[in-house]
Amino acid sequence: MAKDVDQGRIIQEQIRAAAASKESLTVVGGGSKAFYGRITSAEDKVLKVAGHRGIIRYTPSELVVTARCGTPLAEINAALAEHGQMLGFDPPAYDKTATLGGAIACGLAGPRRPYAGSIRDHVLGVTCVTGRGEILHFGGEVVKNVAGFDVPRLMVGSMGTLAVLLDVSLRVVPRPQYEVTLAFDVDQHEGMRRMHEWWKAGALPISAACHDGQQSYLRLSGYEAAVNAARARLGGEVYGKGEQFWSDLRDQRMDFFRLTDEESNLWRITVAPTAQPLKLVSDSLIEWGGALRWIKTILPSQVIRAIATRGSGHATLFRGERRYGMVFHPLPEGVYALHRRLKAAFDPQGILNPGRMYPDF
After folding, report:
1. Which residues in 8-95 belong to E strands, given as ranges?
2. Which domains does the chain have, with CATH numbers?
3. pLDDT tens per residue, range 231-287
4. For the stretch 214-251, what's the b/e string if a residue is b when 16 or more beta carbons lie within 10 angstroms of its beta carbon?
5. Whole-angstrom Cα distance, residue 82 to residue 100?
6. Distance from chain centroid for Cα 308
């Protein structure tokens, strides 16, 4: 296990100094997700937190790990793998610098998410520094502990706008005994139909499902007997490069995710898994069994969001050049007001990642 380096007090003092001088801070971990979200208005003052790293406690028998937020995901994954365990929410690591704190702050999960739960479902507790420079603790390390869960869940996807994460306690899960990936040579409409059927079936040991524009892919995970029974029932061809395929999908190493057209943008659209294919003449990739649609298009954001809304979904500009505008889906007025109150409670001067999520916070 790598050396534990506690820089919590150093980070706290830097935030206190910034608050006293009313300087805004851009919070940076490993930098692997710097492309995500709006361009902040505080790029001249950077708060680096990747040096605050190390696994504090890991109790395999309790399925709980507590680590500092600058700890690389690769280091955590390796430690868990030694004990046949893993992070159930399957966080993407777009390069080797990706950190635990960045995964929590961005709130992104990989192909297992619909079947193993979201990041919020796995976060047990957090230690963080507010915009006032206060170190606060919420939640705990016990899976059965319910008190205080709300604040740890709030930190997921907050993009560092509420507080700077120091330490996080997570529930981990056993690695599957056996996995197989099946490929189906079907078009997108038939692929969607099958994914809807698989979703409704419920009892199948599915851990990932997608259509890459050419074929549908389905991953089955669990006990070997159950996986083989499902495989015999569903048909399809065994895909021998399944592990690499799902890793490349999660970390966006596939050719689909490369933006070759300067005018093109990559949109991340979440919808109900049973929603029909979006009416867009664009390159698309569908995962999460139909609940997550990736779209490459030059269409304006108003058109994309109108179509997403008709499908009861939300559209986020994931990669592209228009990051000064509305990157995340506009919130209803009541929800937006709640976000502003939370921001005022945790960061009253608005010094943490100002503008990273929405123009005024």
Report:
1. 26-28, 46-48, 55-59, 64-68, 85-86
2. 8-174 (3.30.465.10), 178-250 (3.30.70)
3. 999 999 999 999 999 999 999 999 999 987 776 899 999 998 877 777 766 788 999
4. ebbbbbbbbeeebbeebbeebebeebeebeebbbebbb
5. 18
6. 20
